[in-house]
Amino acid sequence: MLITPTALDPVMLVELSPRGDERGYFMRTYDEEIFLRHGLQTQWVQENQSLSVVAGTLRGLHFQRGSAAETKFVRVLRGRIWDVAVDIREGSPTFGRYVGEELSAASNRALYIPRGFAHGFFTLESDCLVAYKVDNFYSSADEGGLRWNDPALGIAWPMGNGTPACISDKDAVWPLLSATDPRP
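RE: above sequence
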């Protein structure tokens, strides 16, 4: 398992290392000791999974406020996505900046997204299955989001025609960064 900083520290790219033979492979997908050595969260309270049937599905940008803020550890079980984390930490020198990484079942790459970041992803294939661990319980009262196409964020989503093939009504109308209070 190799953990490296992305262009937006403290978001980390985690590269998993399958060991294979004629039967297939074995792969450690999480290791508390390695995470601790890198100063990362190790106490997870939920593991969630989402299936996006249509290629070009956009989910996000989501976050939780206050004491409900979450760290996420995201990996793809099937398919390929472009995963995005946006810094929404008040006073951060990188506030409003984002990092995007392609994650896939084939690449065995995962993204560690700490509290204080909004998260979303765009499916690059049909039938994408995404799993993510979180370190806090979901609270609908503390749920927030940012508009996926907020010009202030300038996210270069990898969609050819400029609009997602599929997006929830809720995700389509989240407020712009300038009109929301994202304080975690």
